[in-house]
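Translate sequence into structure tokens.
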Amino acid sequence: QVQLVESGGGLVQAGGSLRLSCEASGRTFSRYAMGWFRQAPGKEREFAAAINWSGQSTYYVDSVKGRFTISRDNAKNTVYLQMNNLKPEDTAVYYCAGGNRGNYYSTADFDYWGQGTQVTVSS
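Result follows.
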């Protein structure tokens, strides 16, 4: 079982940056793919970014490519989401997720979830 805790959300102006962190308590963190999903008001939770167990492969939704970078530090049991050039449409609750099913784009591909952290981008 993996416990995930997100941090780093907040309020930022358009064009600014934030770095989200997700700390995992499970001993098998290094075996899990990790993802970030986001849910804006009135919308379904959607895929944002994912990284495989080793950090060698990353995946992004088209709308964040070139602006967001997912990374992980297995020695620290932590995954990060660096968000640059933020836009108001990035405003959402961001959720960290972990899984070992070998796929990355759906909530169904992940078994463990954090509580979420709010990101608000103002104009």
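Note: The two ends are 40 Å apart (CA to CA).
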